[in-house]
Amino acid sequence: MIPRRVLTIAGSDSGGGAGIQADLKTITVLGGFGMSVITALTAQNTLGVHGIHDVPLDFIEAQFDAVASDIGVDAAKTGMLATADVIRLVARKIREYGIEKLVVDPVMIAKGGTPLIRDEAKAPLLAELIPLAFVVTPNVPEAEILAGMKIASLADMEEAARRIHRAGARHVVVKGGHLDRGLGEATDVLYDGREVHRLTSPWIATRDTHGTGCTFSAAIATGLAHGKDVPDAVAAAKRYITEAIRHAWRIGGGHGPTNHMAGVKGEG
């Protein structure tokens, strides 16, 4: 039996809570075979990002070719793509290998506030990578940039999803965790070009949410690799990240990581 092969194309988080590390933990726990193309190295912990080292373009391409040409890819996700050149390279490789089940997590700012994408890279992200996305998963601040509008309500989230869909993404999930509505719940919006679906979970009061976006998008990619349709993959990922936040680890002095084992192995 060949396992479902899930490729993460993202930056490394030395603290283990986000990026490649969070993705591989998620993929493994959810029954996939995780592979990686590392686009950047970060010196990072729960307090923030203390340094970024860009991986040379030729080595990013070498990683991609080594994995895709030999092992193959059932689904992929992107995370930290810091420069326009990296985005263009990744988009070219996605097209070259015909990867259709692509989840784009448009990472822009780290939990501690450090920018993870340069300003000049935002235009090619929207023009070259978003149109290749089977699913794109911006949070509210990222959706504001991609959609070119302010978001203050669920109706705004739905409009932003429609605008991002018009940029070429097949499915758009605008994550509502940053939108404090005072209702004790966190609602995400899924738009497929025809219908809007709202996915709601309890609001969990914790600062230990480092790596939630990475984990959520990796969970969606793994679900797609296993043959789930988009609504089922997103709903399953929503359940998974909710439990990972509910049982988050109190590690370090800042934003601790989610617990990737919670709700799966009975560990919290």
What can you tell me about this protein's structure?
The longest helix has 17 residues, at 230-246. Strands 3-2-1-4-5-6-7-8-9 form a 9-stranded mixed β-sheet, sandwiched between helices. The protein has a single domain, classed as UDP-N-acetylmuramoyl-L-alanine:D-glutamate ligase (3-Layer(aba) Sandwich). The protein starts with a strand and ends in a 22-residue tail after the last helix. Helix content is 37%, strand content 21%. α5 (140-147) packs across α6 (154-166) and α7 packs antiparallel against α8. β8 (185-191) and β9 (196-202) form a beta hairpin. The mean pLDDT is 93. It has helices at 19-29, 57-70, 84-96, 122-129, 140-147, 154-166, 212-225, 230-246; strands spanning 5-13, 33-45, 48-54, 75-78, 102-104, 135-136, 171-174, 185-191, 196-202. The radius of gyration is 17 Å and the shape is globular. The chain is built from 8 helices and 9 strands. The protein has 268 residues and is of the alpha/beta class.
